[in-house]
Every structure is written in C-alpha cells, then in structure tokens.
TrEMBL record:
Keywords: Magnesium, Metal-binding, Transferase. One of its GO terms (biological process) is enterobactin biosynthetic process. This is 4'-phosphopantetheinyl transferase. It comes from Streptomyces niveus (Streptomyces spheroides). Mg(2+) binds at residues 105-107. CoA binds at residues 39, 47, 83-84, 105, 150, 154, 164.
Length: 218
C-alpha cells in the first residue's frame, strides 16, 4: 500500500501485523526491553520492514538505533521513515540524491476520539475537515489530518532538529487528487540550499488504514 504514496526512487516494505521471523539486533532489543509486548512487536516488525527496504535500496541493513527525539538513525547515505499502528507496520527509505527528507504515517481509518480534532487542527482545518466528512464521505478525514500532520513532523524533524506543534502547520487536502499541502507556520525548513515554506504530501485510505506521506525532494 505504501509504495502508492512515495516517490518511485524510494524503497518500501510493509506488514499487516507482527511477523514471527522479525528479529532485533541486541542493541535494538535494549531500546524496548522494558516496553509492553505490543510495543516490542510493532518495533520489531517495523525494524524488519526497514531492513527489507534498506536491502532493496542496496544499503547496509544493520541495527537502526533511535536518535534525538525518537527519530530513527539511518545508515550514512539514507533517509527514511517508519510507522506502525494497529494492523500495519511500514518503512520507507531513499537516497539523499533523490529525497532530502521523507515522513510516513499510518493510522486506523476511524474517527478521532472526541476532542482530539480540536486539539490538533487549526480553526480553518476543523471547518474543512467537517465539510469533507459531509461532502466526501467514506474517508476518516479527521484521522487523515492527524496522520498527515505526523508525516509533516517526521519529514520536518530530520531537516530542522526542531519540534513542531500541531498548530504550526496548516494543511489543505485535495480530496480527489490524493495529495495535500502543508504550510509551515513555524518558519521555513531548509533542504539542499532551498528554503521551503510548504511541504507536499500524498494520502490514501484503504483496507481500514489511512496512510500519509510527505516527501521533500532533493
Ligand atoms: C513522533 C510521532 C510523530 C510519532 O507518530 P505516531 O503516530 O505516534 O507513531 P508512528 O508509529 O506512526 O511513528 C512512530 C515512529 O516515528 C519515528 N519517529 C519518532 N520520532 C521521530 C522524529 N522526531 N522524527 C522522525 N521520525 C520520528 C520512529 O521511527 C517511530 O517508531 P519507532 O520508535 O518504532 O522507531 C508522534 O508521537 C509525535 O511526537 N507527534 C508530535 C509532533 C507532531 O506530530 N507535530 C505535528 C506537526 S504539524
């Protein structure tokens, strides 16, 4: 599913649950040794997906440790992103010659719990989501907005090393085109000598999952 929303030069792997063959390197296992079984399972399968994707890219598929603010530490010459939610785990990797940064996020295609939309969406985003829920039914637009914001953050953080609050990006969806734009209200990001005031994203909703990506091209 994820390959439908990332650039052709990226490599991906995904799983619809935990895989018995997935294993961790000892230094990765230390990162989740006190975690609950569900967290260990999704971490392990997502690391397994990441190694499959790295192998397809021709990159070393060793231990992927966790860096600053939880960001995965990719091997030299690789950018990538990891996501997991109930029933889905995925990783995407690419070469910096093609992609400066990428973020992916999966969520169950269910309405957000009461009050969450108001906490994560700007007033105009809330209005747009409520309209889309009526005019384009069949998509959990509130959950999709949440996922898209998390994808924005996962692409933003490796470029800026700064946290980004939910109200610091304004998202606008193209419901027919499967795309969205994020206006960066916290200030621009810089990539490859360019100053970026917006990020471009893609989305899909299928098989009970909403999936979003943000790619900053090289
Ligand atoms: C980090 C965050 C985005 C993760 O999203 P999530 O839906 O909870 O979880 P997902 O399973 O989709 O993603 C988790 C993965 O994201 C990756 N990740 C975590 N922190 C990250 C960071 N700072 N930068 C890039 N990737 C990060 C990790 O690979 C993590 O998995 P792992 O711990 O198994 O390695 C979220 O917990 C968070 O902190 N959000 C607040 C910031 C935000 O989203 N702002 C919105 C700006 S518009």
């Amino acid at each position: 599913m994820i390959e439908r929303i990332v650039p052709a030069e990226a490599e991906t792997a995904e799983a619809y649950g935990d895989l018995p063959e997935a294993t961790l390197f000892p230094e990765e296992a230390l990162l989740v040794k006190s975690a609950v079984a569900q967290r260990r399972g999704e971490f392990t399968t997502a690391r397994h997906c990441a190694r499959q994707a790295l192998t397809r890219l021709g990159a070393p598929a060793g231990a992927i440790l966790t860096g600053e603010r939880g960001a995965p530490m990719w091997p030299e010459g690789v950018v990538g992103s990891i996501t997991h939610c109930v029933g889905y785990r995925a990783a995407v990797v690419a070469r910096p010659a093609h992609v400066a940064a990428i973020g992916v996020d999966a969520e169950p295609a269910l309405p957000l719990p009461e009050g969450v939309l108001e906490a994560v969406a700007l007033p105009d985003e809330q209005i747009a989501v409520k309209e889309l829920l009526v005019t384009v039914p069949g998509v959990a637009w509130d959950r999709l907005l949440f996922s898209a914001k998390e994808s924005v953050y996962k692409a933003w953080f490796p470029l800026t090393r700064r946290f980004l609050e939910f109200e610091e990006a304004r998202l606008v969806f193209d419901p027919a085109g499967g795309t969205f734009t994020a206006q960066l209200l916290a200030g621009p990001a810089r990539a490859g000598g360019r100053t970026l005031h917006t990020f471009d994203g893609r989305w899909l909703s299928d098989d009970g999952i909403v999936l979003t990506s943000v790619t900053v091209p090289a």
